[in-house]
Amino acid sequence: MLKAERYRHFVEYFSKNQPNPVTELHYNNPFQLLVAVILSAQCTDKRINQVTPALFERFPDVASLAASNAEEIFPYIRSVSYPNNKAKHLAGMGKMLMDIFNGEVPSKIEELQKLPGVGRKTANVIASVVFDAPAIAVDTHVFRVANRIGLTTRARTPLAVEKQLTEYLPQNTLGVAHHWLILHGRYICVARSPKCEICPLTWFCKYYQQHNTETALQKAEALKIRKTKDAKKKKMLNTISKELARRSVDKDI
Ligand code: SF4
Question: 49 versus 231: which is more confidently predicted?
């Protein structure tokens, strides 16, 4: 199947079945989304949603965050991953928003990336979700699922994945495609063992096709048989060597 066809099937399927996907992070304004996305690096959305209500109550706006420091922020985020670094980032981010951006979250990706704790992924999320910019953020789910489906080829870095997705996806789907891939990766195409048996994308998924052709199934079966034979052989050799050792002890006695 041609790559362009895969993209077409991917967009058609999700446009029809998941036309309005949204982030699972809870937020009420751009400032809160920015804070939540910074916190969500290497952490689950569920955990972030547990800490943000108290955090947003104590720091309801940019000004209150800018007036604080990492020590004050830390207790509110101690249960997320890397709380020390993230507390420093949030304090620095608040100050920079006040000092350079008049207390507003900037809309440009380059400007967002100047903020402490904001890398390209976070900047793309904010730009696309808040400002409708044609940008796709690549996290671990997007990276893995795009590669498995066959939307990307030989893309070794998040930036390479972003470039390929941006090249092939229709511009007006870039923002939603990010959520499609994340949600699919979180619930079906999971990292260790993708749930292909319940996945609706098998008929155009490259990974599925590579692992479920007649030859692939035969190879997997042959490997299983060989492993069973090897295990039996090892067990038999163990028994023989134990028996030989026993006999030599008996002889010495
Ligand atoms: S068929 Fe399997 S590998 Fe392909 S997208 Fe679905 S779950 Fe992932």
Answer: 49
pLDDT digits (tens, 9 = 90+) for 52-70: 999 999 999 999 999 999 9
Q: Same structural domain for residues 50 and 130?
A: yes
215 pLDDT more than 70: no
83-97 mean pLDDT = 96
Burial of 28 (0-12, 13-18, 19+ CB in 10 A): exposed
- Mean pLDDT taken over the chain: 91
Return the structure tokens found at 174. 């870039």
Q: 235 is in which domain, residue-wise?
A: 218-253
If we measure between CA atoms, which residue out of 95, 123, 129, 109 comes closest to residue 38? Answer: 123
Separation of 94 CA from ligand 1 center, angstroms? 40
Closest ligand 1 atom, residue 194 Cα: 7
Residue in 142, 143, 189 to alter for ligand 1 test, most ligand atoms within 8 A of Cβ: 189
Name the residue among 131, 148, 130, 128 with its Cα closest to residue 140.
148
Catalytic: 121? yes
Look up the CATH number of the domain holding residue 72. Answer: 1.10.340.30
Which residues' Cβ are closer than 6 Å to ligand 1? 148-149, 188-189, 194-196, 199, 201-202, 205, 207-208
Same domain for 223 and 198, yes or no, is no
